[in-house]
Amino acid sequence: MLLRERALEVLQLPDPHAKAQAAQHMWANAHAYRIKPQALVQPPPDAALPGLPPRQELRHHTQVARRSPATLQGRAVLMHAIAHIEFNAINLALDAIWRYPAMPPAYYLDWLQVAGEEGKHFLMIAQWLQEQGWAYGDFPAHQGLWAMCEKTAHDITARMALVPRTMEARGLDATPQIQAKLRQIATPDALAAAHILDTILREEVGHVAIGNHWYRWLCQQQGHAPEAYYVQLYAQYQAPWPKPPLNHPARQAAGFSLSELQWLTMSQHRA
Questions:
Q1: CA distance 140 to 246
Q2: How far apart are the first and last CA of the chain?
Q3: Which domain covers residue 125, as residue numbers?
Q4: Is residue 136, in this structure, part of any structural domain at all?
């Protein structure tokens, strides 16, 4: 079976649980796939990319309500929002596999790992929601992460710069703050949610590191100075500024240089 073709098939699945499970299965059976980097892979003309559940209500990010995690429903809204990010992250990893040809085999295996782990994250949160009496799709969500995926579809270097190491890296900054609030609340469900976020944060550092690695590899191939070109892409695609405070240890572990962190810290004043 061809890995890139299978990634495209799974990307089109509308059921989020089936997609998450399929992504996990792909990663667990990576050895069974042939990669064929040069192959031309195309979706059917009527394909919906990505496949989305019909019951999911999508709104602009400014129209998605935020509720205090002090209540159980507020915590459900919060965890649902994170579940939606993880669902989008599965889609992003699968898209990175099928869309871009002629990359080294390690590139495709890296993004297969990301897809599998994002599938695990989604299912962990879905289980938590179910235990509290809710399900994925019960609350509105937004497509900000996928919107950047669409904007960079034609340019793999921009994709690596602005999705994993920009949009997804914001989770490295936000997660410790969310965990602190949940642990302060200290109800069993809040502590369980904080524990899930431990796993997600640890593995997301690796995902951002994969984006950093391939962004720098592409810059080397194309003759770009990575840090200067990142600033250029940031402005060209109007990427959102990071919100303070930056998680410096996690970002350094994910491959950000000290000079990049200084620039990002300065840029936070524009957010």
A1: 27
A2: 45
A3: 3-35+63-270
A4: yes
Total domains in the fold of the chain: 1
Write the CA distances from 66 to 61, 237, 238, integer angstroms.
10, 27, 24
Inside any domain, residue 56? no
Q: Residue 227: inside a domain, yes or no?
A: yes
| Rounded-to-integer distance, Cα 139 and Cα 133, Å | 13
- 236 lies in a domain? yes
User: What are the distances in angstroms from CA 248 to CA 79, 86, 189, 202?
Assistant: 24, 22, 29, 14
CATH number at residue 184: 1.20.1260.10
Q: How much is the pTM?
A: 0.94
- Long-range Cβ pairs for the range 146-153 (8 Å, 24+): 146/50, 146/88, 146/91, 146/92, 148/237, 148/239, 149/88, 149/91, 149/92, 149/95, 151/237, 152/237, 153/95, 153/99
In one-letter notation, the amino acid at residue 200 is I
pLDDT in tens, the chain (271 residues): 899 999 999 999 999 999 999 999 999 999 999 999 999 999 998 888 999 988 666 555 554 566 789 999 999 999 999 999 999 999 999 999 999 999 999 999 999 999 999 999 999 999 999 999 999 999 887 766 788 999 999 999 999 999 999 999 999 999 999 999 999 999 999 999 999 999 999 999 999 999 999 999 999 999 999 999 999 999 999 998 888 899 999 999 999 999 999 999 887 655 5
